[in-house]
Design a protein that fits this description.
134 residues; Nuclear Transport Factor 2, Chain: A
């Protein structure tokens, strides 16, 4: 999983984190290891019609997604990194969600906006994920 090469992090470190996150989620065998990158002080994942704030909620949602889909994965098209005055890092991610649903292939565009914090103790922690309609 993601290990930065140095601190403070640069934009390529943030992009590497994003790609590592999706690669781990796509392999799914041990996606719970991603939980260590969710801010222990509180996080929020906003999916249309659903807001997740606990690892248990994320786990239940992920299991439901996996139960309805096969060969599910992500192709990342772009990651735009910006830094806010309050120290937060924003990653605007665009890509395609691909897989099979009820035996039929699908490909759906997606956009997610992540808010992250960074410190020497925790190079990147995910505070907020928002699934944005495309």
């Amino acid at each position: 999983m993601f290990k930065p090469f140095g601190f403070p992090l640069n934009d390529n470190d943030v992009k590497a984190f994003v790609y590592s996150w999706f690669a781990a989620a796509d392999h799914d065998g041990d996606y719970k290891r991603l939980f260590s990158f969710l801010d222990p002080g509180g996080f929020e994942i906003k999916i249309p019609g659903l807001t997740l704030t606990t690892t248990e909620g994320v786990d239940k949602w992920r299991q439901a997604v996996r139960a309805s889909l096969t060969d599910e994965g992500h192709d990342i098209d772009s990651v735009c990194v910006t830094r806010r005055n309050d120290g937060r890092i924003v990653a605007d991610i665009k890509g395609r969600w691909i897989g099979r649903e009820k035996g039929k292939p699908f490909e759906r565009p997606f956009r997610q906006v992540w808010s992250l914090t960074s410190s020497e103790q925790h190079p990147l922690l995910l505070n907020k994920v928002e699934f944005v309609a495309v």
